[in-house]
Amino acid sequence: MLAHDFENIVNKYIKRYNLIDTGNSVIVALSGGADSVALLAVLTRLGYNCTAAHCDFHLRGDESERDREFAQLTAGNMGATYREIHFDTETYRRQNGVSLEMACRELRYNWFSQLSHESGTGHPIPVA
């Protein structure tokens, strides 16, 4: 599948299900993995004003830092605004009596909601 074909498929899906109004701003959770990079790439190419939001949970040492640097560089190369946040995930997990996975989910969803409120983009659609 060519990139242009993929963009057309995504664009048709967005329009069919009325996911994003043309001209709206979009917050993209950018982990640095292939899925989030592809999403940011296609949305910026379709003309959406994207903010790339990167969460650093500090769980993987130097790998976390490399992911953060890659996310920042990727956002810049695609013309997206870049926002990042650093979490003390272990402290949050202990204080709230939740699993590590749940702590990460709650922290990122709360931040995405805050970003959405600040930017006026509406309600975020959580993606696990």
Describe the protein in words.
The protein is of the alpha/beta class and 128 residues long. It has a domain at 3-87: HUPs (Rossmann fold), CATH 3.40.50.620. It contains five helices and three strands, in the order αβαβαβαα. Strands 1-2-3 form a three-stranded parallel β-sheet, with helices on both faces. α4 (89-96) packs across α5. The radius of gyration is 15 Å and the shape is globular. It starts with a helix and ends in a 9-residue tail after the last helix.
The beta-strand count equals: 3
CATH class of one domain: Alpha Beta
Helical run tally:
5
Residues in β-strands, percent: 5-15%
Largest sheet: 3 strands, parallel
Structural class: alpha/beta
CATH superfamily of one domain: HUPs
As laid out across the biggest beta sheet, the strand order is 1-2-3
The overall pLDDT, averaged over residues, is 90
- Classify the fold: give the CATH topology of one domain: Rossmann fold
* Rg computed from alpha carbons, rounded to a whole number of angstroms: 15 Å
Q: Which regions contain 5 or more consecutive residues with pLDDT less than 50?
A: none
How far apart are the first and last residues' alpha carbons, in Å? 26 Å
- Shape, per Cα inertia axes: globular
- Could you spell the SSE succession in H and E letters? HEHEHEHH
> What's the helical proportion of residues?
40-55%
CATH architecture descriptor text of one domain: 3-Layer(aba) Sandwich
